[in-house]
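Researcher: Go.
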Amino acid sequence: MMLNGMRVVDFSNYLPGPYATMRLAELGAEIIKVESPRGDPARELDVKLDGTGVVFLANNKSKKSVTLDLKNFKDQQLAKRLIASADAVLESFRPGVMKKLGLDYETVRSLNTKLVYCSLTGYGNNGKYHQHGSHDLNYMAISGMLAQLKDRSGKPIHPSQTIADFVGGIAASERILAGLVARGISGEGSYHCISIADVMTSMMGNHFIMNQATGAINGVEILSGSIINYAIYETMDQRYIALGALEMKFWENFCEAIQKREWAVYYYHQTNSDIYQEVKTVFMSKSFQQWIEFSEKVDCCMTPVLEVDELSNFSYFTNRDIIKNENDILLPKLHSDRYDASQCAPPKLGENTNEILSSLSQGK
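Model: Structure:
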C-alpha cells in the first residue's frame, strides 16, 4: 500500500486525531497509538460493544497500542525514542502540554530532522481562544456552520453527527501527507498546527462571498432547499427522498418519467409555489421502496435518505463492498480494495508495548 514503511506516532484521544491516523492506517502506515496506563478515554466512553466504547472501536482500526505514562521521566524518554523512529507525529493535547512534557516539535526535532509533526487543536496554538476547551458542537457553532442547519422556526438543529471532528481529522491527515510529500522533495521535516475551528470556517467560502454579493446568509440559494428540483420530499410511508436535479437534463428526465413533461418549464421554480405542492403530491403517491426502484432506473440525481441500519444491506454498498464485518462489528472502509481483515481490529490497551519498545532497544 502507498504508505507501507511509514511510521506515525499518535498521541491523540477521543475522535478527531484517531480518525486522522486511522485514515493513514488504511493507506498502509504503521500507527503506534500512545496511551496512558488508563487508556484513551474513548475506550470507556458512552455505549460499549464487547466491553469497549463504540467511539474507540470506530476510529482505531489497524493500529498498535503502546502504554506510556507521559508524566514519568523514564516514559518521556521512551516516547522520544519512539518519535526518533517515526516519520510523523500527531498530537491533540491543548497547546503547551507537549512542551511541558518535553515532547513538542522544537524539543524533538533535533532527534529526527525529517519528522513531520502535526498538532490538532481546537483554535490553534496562539490567540484569544487557543486555551479554550471545546467540542464538535462548539466548532460547528463558532464557524457559522451550525447556523446553516435550522428548523422551520429558525432554531439551529443539534446534529447527530460530529461533522467538525471528522473534517478536522481529514484536514490533519491531509496535512501530514503534504508534509511527507514536501519531505520527499526537500529532505526536511516540518511542523503543522491544525485548528478545527479554522477548518470549519474555511468551508464557508460560498456563504461569505454570497453574503457580500447579495446580503444572503444561507449561501447559494438554489442549494438551500428553495427550488423544486433540488429538494427533499416525503414519500407515502413517511420516508424521504433527495432530488438533486440541478441541471435541466436531469429535471426533464424526472418529469418525463413521471409523465409530467409539461412540468419541465417549472425548472428552478421556488418551493413556495403552487407547483411545489403538486410535486410533493407526486412523491406522496409512491412508497420509499418504489422511489428507490425509480431512482435506479431514471437518471435524475435521486437517492433515498437512508438510516444507518439500512446502509450495510443497500445495493450500492454491497456492490462496492465498503462496509466490512470484523468480529461481528460492522464498519465502513475508506479503501475497500486495501482491506485486510487480519489487521483491522482496534488494539487492546498496551498490547504492542513490549513488541515496540523491544524493537527500539534493538535499534529498529
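Model: The radius of gyration is 24 Å.
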